[in-house]
């Protein structure tokens, strides 16, 4: 389930749970019965996930768990997306486009930003708290009755598969949490596998070299799959080729080879993409997500959709539906700009991104620098996990920008004072333990009209979105 899904062990999280519980029992005659029930259901889901977080179990018992649940994933077809960065955006593009074509699509992004219901979606829309609780509770009850032990990632995947089966989805877009070979979604034979890219991250789980990490992620591939490969460093590409060479009857499309894309300016001054795959030629595709790296993610999503069509899992999507679906794609927390942003008496600009490693930060840095030119002053708010390479994560951004270090509310969070030591070469560092205090201090540093950029774990980005009253994605 990745390294960012626990919601306990931090003062802000304890207050959040206290607030949730207080809202369950508001003063009488408030007419909030439905809202109270939703909060109860969300809290119950959080507590179920928490029981399996960091329990030392893996996904080895996932097949037995699925069998005990009635094998809800046996008929799931679609695409599985793995990679160090870009998984969520690629899935968001694919889901939006497929849904616009009239298909019923299940997806399971992880971790969530603000609400646990974000983890199971139909056509990109989070399911209801009641449905979410029902899905997780069924998995929890089955684990208790069978004595099986799995990690939180497997609980999430099994709950999603169960809901997809009940909802009779046409296809599923499954996002791997960490790695590929041992990820829970590897139990589902979707038929199309997309590897967005490979970088150094989660080395303690996946290996210390690009080759080791690439082999792990390519472990998602099965005989007969249709594989779409994004841009890969040479070492990673060679490792993936070795893994693919051990399989039979594969169809492999590589970005810049079988799949090509070209951004250009449309007549109305929008940037659009032409994407060419062995299946089809697509012209003037809109890319609503910020950053040039999203062109790559969009091309992978389109290639994944064309792979589904080539395999006969769907009919080819009409170009009008494809364009409309891509244009409607929303994916919060990815170079998300709020302008104007208001916090107390401050008004300025707020930019959010879940850059979780050096590669991710380097990828979004050009867009952050571009936004900073519109502001007289820029400050960073940063929080991450202790196993991340903190010293390199902010290297792509100017060393003279002030940085406010904060906690993220995770048992494995990087302690701000330790981050300050790792980032000692930066000119101006300050520490604020709580997110709200860190944001307030950053707004004081940049002043009216300034740019506050928040980088870090999904937990941190979700907290900031809550503070600015942004609705869950």
Describe the structure.
The relative contact order is 0.13. With 473 residues, this protein is of the alpha/beta class. Helices cover 40% and strands 18% of the residues. The chain is globular.
Give a topology summary:
Blueprint: H1 11-24, H2 33-52, H3 62-68, E1 78-82, H4 87-100, E2 105-107, E3 121-122, E4 125-126, H5 129-146, H6 152-167, E5 171-175, E6 191-195, H7 203-206, H8 210-218, E7 226-229, H9 234-245, E8 251-254, E9 260-265, E10 271-276, E11 281-286, H10 293-310, H11 319-327, E12 334-343, E13 346-353, H12 358-372, E14 378-383, H13 390-393, E15 403-405, H14 416-422, E16 429-431, H15 435-446, E17 451-456, H16 458-467
Helix pairs in contact: 1-2, 2-5, 4-10, 4-11, 5-6, 8-9
Major beta sheet, strand line-up: 4-3-2-5-1-6-7-8
Low-confidence stretches: 1-13, 15-29
Shape: globular
Strand runs, count: 17
Q: Return Rg in Å.
A: 22 Å
Strand share of the residues? 15-25%
DSSP helical segment count = 16
SS-derived structural category: alpha/beta
Report how far the terminal alpha carbons are from each other.
Answer: 18 Å
Described by strand count, sense and barrel closure, the largest sheet is: 8 strands, mixed
